[in-house]
Amino acid sequence: MNQPLPSAPLPFLTGLSAHWGWLLARGIAAIVFGLLAFSLPKLTVIALAYVWGSYAIVDGAFALIYGARGGGKRRWTYVVVGLIGVIAGFVAFFWPRETAIILVLIIGVWALAIGIFEIIYAIQFRRAVAHPWAVGLSGLLSAAVGLFIVLFPGAGALSLIWLIAAYAVLYGVLMIVAALHLRRWRNGHPATR
Asked: Is residue 45 part of a domain?
């Protein structure tokens, strides 16, 4: 049975809603990466390393900034996700000629880690009136894709590129939905600005 939510703004939503733009930026970056990967079907593993490395660094930087500036008790999770993204992006950038399996495993572990942290976040803030379902759904998507990639890293370069591209676009859409829900919540609670 659902319990009524308090009428006063929830403190963690106040801090999160002030930074809805960071989620929006992460979503846009993911969609851009996904569309680039879709539009280049003959993408080589080295090119994928550079494109994905760029995306991971940008996404990681946004997550770090969001974690550093965001409110709430659990902002450290975004700092951890941001560090993982930046480190994984630099690994892909500086060692693009390494085997395809290593790159694929980096992407898989990265997606799995992000998924786990986002599921934890969604569970912790499940009573929020804004967006935990979108973040939880993106976390499930990330964890599932990451687990698949880790379990089947040799599934074929082209199929993995399509899978990673589709994941990035869906993940980006869910991040944008979460950001817009936070923005709408913030606009409905002018005292939180």
From this structure: yes
